[in-house]
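Q: Sequence in, structure out?
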Amino acid sequence: MTSEHRFVATGSAGEVSAVLVRPADAWCAFVFGHGAGAGMRHAFMEACATRFAERGVATFRYHFPYMERGRGGPDRAPVLSETVRSAVSEAARVAPDLPLFAGGKSMGGRMTSTAAADAPLPGVRGLAFLGFPLHAAGRDSAERGAHLRDVGLPTLFMQGTRDGLANLDLLRPLLADIVPRPTLHVVEGADHGFHVLKRSGRSDDDVLDELAATFAVWARGFA
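A: Exactly. Output:
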């Protein structure tokens, strides 16, 4: 079942759109934030929602205010973080019987962890990141991940070996110092958008299946 929703992101930013995809056999829900350059209806987001649903995972996708407006770059971090918090509350309202997880693609994931580090996200049992953006392209640094030590929840990082926004040599030692210890799932040959080269012998669809299966196995441990 797919249903359209609207909720107040922040007092100043107003309402944003959201989509709940809930399979008949849903056993948990994932509050799924989009990346900086593409909204909740991007092909990757849609495809992930479909693959997750095949494994009994409902997804609550939503727009950040700047994407709802359809213009300009991302909102300032406090607005993005507050929107995450509002999305979690709305997901709990529309799917009150399902254990909640939260996270997202790239920026959506980082803003979710930022919000969780600032204050607990009510009812959220763990965070999952599809391509955590640890640094800007060509500017390798672990600084953007410093807040992860304050999250205090189980976390799942799904990262490609060709991801130009997350040097695994920096990410691994960062995660090693976090409690509880995060789960790192490395997707061989995938870039930041989880695309793989044809010569790899795999397809993007194969990667999507891997992401969904990895999330489902991980989330079962905390649902």
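Helices lie at 43-54, 65-69, 77-94, 107-118, 168-176, 204-220.
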